[in-house]
Amino acid sequence: MAAARTRSENFPKLLVPLLPVTVSAARRRAAAAAADPSPPTSPAPMEQLNAKLYDKYTALKRRKLLDEGLDQKRAADIKELQQAMKDWVAELQSENERLIAKLTQKEQQLVEVQTLFLDETRKTKELNSEILKLQCLLAEKNDANHIATGSPHTTAEMIIENQTPISPAKKTPKSNSRERNIHSIEKAIIPRNGFQEEGRGLDSCRRHMSISGSATEESSSTCMFHMLAESVVGMKFSVNKTEGFSLSVSHETSGYSFTLTWVDQPGGGEWSYQYSSLGTLDRIAMGWMKEDIKFSTAMCPVFFQQISRILRQG
Description:
Layout: H1 2-15, H2 18-35, H3 45-149, H4 152-162, H5 173-189, H6 196-212, H7 217-233, E1 236-240, E2 246-251, E3 256-263, E4 270-277, E5 293-295, H8 300-313
Antiparallel strand pairs: 1-2, 2-3, 3-4, 4-5
């Protein structure tokens, strides 16, 4: 294509001097043919060459014009395509910037939500700690009141035993009033069904302290706190004083048991967990329940919540 275009561009320069000669010769031949009725003679070889060259020039010129038109159309199409690509790239960049801004906003919202969640978690832990302290203080106060007034059941039994039997014939309004007071004291002292189990455990603890003769306020408070912890967690606790401060925790229904040992650290102590037996929870126990782990005091609520959830599933 390039070679043909070069020839077409150079060809007119070579042919221009020959065109007048060719046209003049053609006119003379036409005039001679009209004047002389003799048969026409064959054209000269030079004239034939000029005619062929002229035809080729015309064809090349036509092809050149067609090629230039195609080139212009192709250039216009390419320019339009380039403009469309530029518009598309600009639109993509704008969409990318919008998505980046939206992502940044979502990340900021996530940080704010995480901060609020941490604040709520901290407040919840503080409230739980305050509730536990108030429960301990209430238990100590109730225990001190019981020690000061004597055992409720013992008081009721002493009142009942010290009453002199009165025959129905000798009963007076005063004796009837005394009997009603005794019954009201019994109703006020005897716990209801919702607290019978805790009452029996507390009474057994008190009877044990009374028999041993060491029923002090401190030991009674310890007993109350022990019972409170067992009722909240739903497992039995026992303190092992042979190796520092260690707690043996067991769940009677499933047979699951483990040991919690307090380990002192420079930046604050932590709990060391070692399982003794998984019992019937072997199939549903989580992976960390089968390993020896350590956690801080702040993770204690989460630790016992996870264990309680597994115990409910078992």
